[in-house]
Amino acid sequence: NDIYVSEPYEGMPAQRNDVRAGDIILEVDGKSVAGLSVADVSAKLKGTPNTIIKLKIKRLGVNKPIEKEFLREKIQVNPITY
């Protein structure tokens, strides 16, 4: 029932702000994600570039939730050629 971060994009805002693979997302912008689907949480994470996003995450080995706040950016994923 938890929403896990699978792999933050290299060099993007989440990774630069120490959001790690395995972190569990508890809240986005102060709103609980309990009971939401992965698609719903993904939609909440996306937003207008240069707006603030606030995350509350749970991390293995850390007793209390961690709060992160950083600017959203336009994310462009470069295609991988084979």
Short overview:
With 82 residues, this protein is an alpha+beta fold. The chain has helices at residues 13-16, 38-45; strands at 3-4, 24-28, 31-32, 52-58, 66-71.
Number of strands: 5
* Count of separate DSSP helical elements: 2
This entry's quaternary arrangement is single chain
Average per-residue pLDDT, rounded, comes to 91
Question: How would you spell out the order of helices and strands?
Answer: EHEEHEE
End-to-end Cα distance, whole Å, is: 35 Å
Task: Look at the helices and sheets and give the structural class.
Answer: alpha+beta
Approximate strand percentage: 25-35%
Helix content: 10-25%
C-alpha geometry: globular
Catalogue the unreliable spans. none
> What about the largest sheet?
5 strands, antiparallel
What is Rg?
A: 13 Å
Describe the overall structure.
The protein is 15% helix and 27% strand. It has two helices and five strands, in the order βαββαββ. The protein has helices at residues 13-16, 38-45; strands at residues 3-4, 24-28, 31-32, 52-58, 66-71. The radius of gyration is 13 Å and the shape is globular.
Provide the fold topology.
Layout: E1 3-4, H1 13-16, E2 24-28, E3 31-32, H2 38-45, E4 52-58, E5 66-71
Antiparallel strand pairs: 1-2, 2-3, 2-4, 4-5
Key traits:
single chain, 82 residues, alpha+beta, five-stranded antiparallel sheet, 15% helix, globular
